[in-house]
Amino acid sequence: MHFAYPPRKTSNPPPYLPRSGGTSRLPGLRRSRLKVIALVGIAFIVFIYILTRPSSSSGHGGSTTTKRRAPSGNPPVVLVTVLDEKRYSKAYIDTVKENRIQYAEKHGYEAFFANIHDYDLKNAPPSWASVVATRHALTRFPEARYVWFLDQNAFIMNPRLSLEEHLMKPARLESLMIKGQPVVPPDSIITTFTHLKGPDVDFVLTQDKEGLSSGSFVVRNGEWAEFLLETWFDPIYRSYNFQKAETHALEHIVQWHPTILQKLALVDQRIINAYNQPKQGAEYQEGDLVVRFAECDKIGPQACEIESKRLAQQWRKAFTSS
């Protein structure tokens, strides 16, 4: 007869037990083995703790903490723009820089310019530089409270509006959030959270007529922002050959990763991302913060420069009178 489990007792003693007489060494062996098991267990627990504990950071006094402290907010905002200085004229690039610098100086922000050709994207489309440049800015300005990425082919038109008061102040943001909105319109089954509160939002962007628009977005500095950008920039997504590169990759991860969706707020396009062509999205109106020359780069650099000339006169006038 065979047992599924060994019986509780046996008439044959184990080979390592003495059959008669003498002093058994079993207690000593047990103690030795228990010590080894205990040491291995402690080492395993320490190993798991090191892997899973929050990233540590050093304070001004040099002491190490187990939880990353909130950034001081100096500067409050870093305004990030990726420039293609090989493809566009120097005059156009200088106008874009001037626009960002003047706005940043007015509100005590920092303007961060990256060259699209400075990043090794492993043969991915150049537009992916927007993601890595945003991560680069967080490294350069670890005390910044927010990072605002704004596409090169855009101007800030209303210098009176600060990013905090216009968008990121919790009460203001909560009033602007579009709740229960399909992430990819018109009929995505994944929608923005209906119960999300302003203080819980770490990622703000808009939609246009085709889906998410990644030409202007804001992230709150912190560990979650690093997680977002590292996930977004994952080599797997860069190798997928999405039609709209990083934009379609973002739509994918937002719909498949609740940890990202739960920190995302969509706002009306005119808040930070109005377009100069109404057929592509919400049309810019005087008083809006931003105007983007959406899709002009698909025609060519000259198309962007032509569209920008009239708007450049407008923003300079607005900045002079503010």
What does this structure look like?
With 322 residues, the protein is α/β, with parallel strands linked by helices. It has one domain: Alpha-Beta Complex (Spore Coat Polysaccharide Biosynthesis Protein SpsA, Chain A), CATH 3.90.550. Helices cover 40% and strands 15% of the residues. The protein is globular, with a radius of gyration of 28 Å. The termini are far apart. 30% of the residues are buried. The model is unreliable at 1-26 and 46-66 (pLDDT under 50). This is Glycosyltransferase family 34 protein.
Q: What's this, in brief?
A:
With 322 residues, this protein is α/β, with parallel strands linked by helices. It has helices at 26-52, 90-107, 129-140, 163-168, 170-176, 223-232, 235-238, 245-256, 258-261, 269-272, 296-299, 301-321, and strands at residues 57-58, 64-65, 77-83, 110-115, 146-150, 154-156, 203-207, 212-220, 264-266, 274-275, 290-292.
| CATH-derived architecture | Alpha-Beta Complex
* Structure classification: alpha/beta
Number of strands: 11
Summarize the helix and strand pattern as letters.
HEEEHEHEEHHEEHHHHEHEEHH
- Write down the CATH class: Alpha Beta
Report Rg. Answer: 28 Å
Overall morphology = globular
Largest sheet: 6 strands, mixed
Number of domains: 1
Mean pLDDT: 85
Describe the protein's topology:
Blueprint: H1 26-52, E1 57-58, E2 64-65, E3 77-83, H2 90-107, E4 110-115, H3 129-140, E5 146-150, E6 154-156, H4 163-168, H5 170-176, E7 203-207, E8 212-220, H6 223-232, H7 235-238, H8 245-256, H9 258-261, E9 264-266, H10 269-272, E10 274-275, E11 290-292, H11 296-299, H12 301-321
Parallel strand pairs: 3-4, 3-5, 7-9, 10-11
Antiparallel strand pairs: 1-2, 5-8, 6-11, 7-8
